[in-house]
Amino acid sequence: MVTLLVVGCEGGATSEPLAVAAPEHASADTRRAHMHERFESIDVARSALQRGDLAATRTIASTIAFRMPIDLPPPVRVHGDAVPRRALALSAAEDLDTASAAFAQLVGTCGACHEAAGATWAWQETPIPEGEDLEPRMQRHAWANERMWEALLTRDPERFDRAASVLAEAPLSGDIAPDEERPAGLREIEERLRDAARDVASATTMDERVTIYGRIVATCGACHARLRAAP
């Protein structure tokens, strides 16, 4: 759970996703309201993508891309103007890997907008789930994914790296259940997740972390889609 204390990312219009002139001199309250609406939509898209639901992700992204724009202060306008374009790219994605990469770029743009706006955030800190059965292991995956999402929104590399280290050290579910008892290809997906998390150790910029986050989200969506399709 996150509480935004200062106005952050708010998308402006471009001729590509929406050819409508932005209103002038929007109030801080108006910007804040639009920002929260957009944040909620992006979070819904994140949930759909993590479930492996590409159709729902694209639908939600299109509502972000074509939403009425809002005037922004000059320091954040360049980032806000990029949000509809990022969302449009997400709405056009034809597979989970492409959608996840586009979503990561969208979240990264929001984070850059928040940073430019001097936004401050209050997080509800939660402990890392413990336990070695399958359920707590998956809960650790979810915990780490949540922290990485927060870190990108606030441009916090330390928070991101800590979360990635939890994923990198997490045992594979195959350590509990033999491969023949799990859907085909699941081990490969889990190995992709672990490889992406371990690559964070060599990341030096937030842009590199954004790219890795896209790979991680893709593995989450692929795994959940595979499990749903299993007999």
What do the pLDDT scores average to?
82
Q: Give the end-to-end Cα distance, rounded to a whole number of Å.
A: 34 Å
Number of E-state strands: 2
- The helix content is 55-70%
Order of strands side by side in the largest beta sheet? Answer: 1-2
Determine the strand fraction and express it as a percent band: under 5%
Question: What's the multimeric state?
Answer: single chain
Q: What kind of sheet is the major sheet?
A: 2 strands, antiparallel
Low-confidence stretches: 1-24
Q: Rounded to an integer, what's the Rg over CA atoms? A: 18 Å
Helical region count? 8
What general outline do the C-alpha atoms trace? globular
Task: Write a concise synopsis of the structure shown.
The chain has eight helices and two strands; from the N terminus they run βααααβαααα. The protein has 231 residues and is mostly helical.
Describe the structure.
The structure is a single chain. The protein is mainly α and 231 residues long. Helix content is 64%, strand content 3%. The chain contains 8 helices and 2 strands, in the order βααααβαααα. The protein has helices spanning 28-50, 54-65, 74-91, 96-117, 134-154, 157-169, 186-199, 206-229; strands at 2-4, 121-123. A two-stranded antiparallel sheet has the order 1-2. α3 (74-91) runs antiparallel to α4 (96-117), α4 packs antiparallel against α8 (206-229) and α5 (134-154) packs antiparallel against α6 (157-169). The longest helix is centred in the last third of the chain and has 24 residues, at 206-229. The two termini are 34 Å apart.
